[in-house]
Amino acid sequence: MTGSYHGRRQEPPVSFKRAAGKGIRVISVTSGKGGVGKTNVVVNLALGLARLGKRVLMIDADLGLANIDVMLGLTPSATLNDVFRGDKRLADILVDGPGGIKLVPAGSGVQQYTSLGQTERLPCWTSWTSLKRNSTSS
To answer: Could you count the other beta carbons within 10 Å of the beta carbon of residue 120?
Structure first.
C-alpha cells in the first residue's frame, strides 16, 4: 500500500520484509514527522508478537531522541553510542525487556551519531553480523 504526497510516491510507514531464506521477518516503523506514535506502535507490536510466541528484537534507531527503553521502564547500561565509538559490541548492549523481548537501545542527545560516517558504521556492522551468526546458531 503506497500513497502520494504532493505527487511524490510514499512508502507505507510500516513495512514487513522477510530476510532471504532465514525465516526472519523485519518490521520497520518510520515517519518523517515526530510525535505521531511510532514508539507506541513499535512497543505494542513487539509485546503482541512476543505474546504469540515470536522471538522479538527491537532496535531503537532514533539516534536523536531514543525512548523505547523509557517506555518499557528499562535502564540500559550501554547504548548504540557505545557501539559506534567501538567500546561495545551489539551483543554487549542487548537489554532484556518484558515478555521476553530484546532491545538494542539507542542513546539520546548525541547529534554526531545522527549522521554516521564509515568509521562509526563499521564497528556497528561488524557487531551486527556477529550477532546474526550467534542468534541463528542457537
So the answer is: 17
